[in-house]
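Priority: medium. Attachment 1 of 2:
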């Protein structure tokens, strides 16, 4: 299992919209996450700074393949079209990233 954490900024004028979007997350998106071996997906919001932190556990064996499936899924593309305009990526991030990856530095079972 691979534990993953990422962060991004949330536009101040989109906080309410973003919360509503995720309160009503489509069942197709939830099913897709299971299909691509992502468990325990969570998003946290730090206000008033409006920083989003996401965490998930990847339990598959071919991360690249599963991420390709996710990126090509029609429902997921529509979901990203709704969520993307609410977000502002950090200026300093790895090439190709929207959400910034975070290094896991501590875990206690």
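Attachment 2 of 2:
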């Amino acid at each position: 299992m691979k534990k993953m954490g990422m962060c991004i900024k949330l536009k101040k004028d989109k906080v309410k919209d973003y919360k509503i979007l995720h309160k009503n997350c489509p069942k197709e998106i939830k099913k897709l996450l299971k299909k691509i071996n992502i468990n325990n997906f969570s998003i946290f919001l730090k206000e008033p700074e409006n920083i989003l932190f996401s965490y998930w556990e990847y339990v598959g064996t071919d991360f690249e393949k599963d991420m390709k499936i996710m990126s090509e899924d029609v429902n997921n593309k529509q979901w990203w079209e709704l969520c993307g305009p609410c977000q502002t990526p950090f200026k300093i991030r790895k090439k190709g990233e929207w959400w910034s990856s975070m290094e896991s530095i501590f875990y206690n079972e």
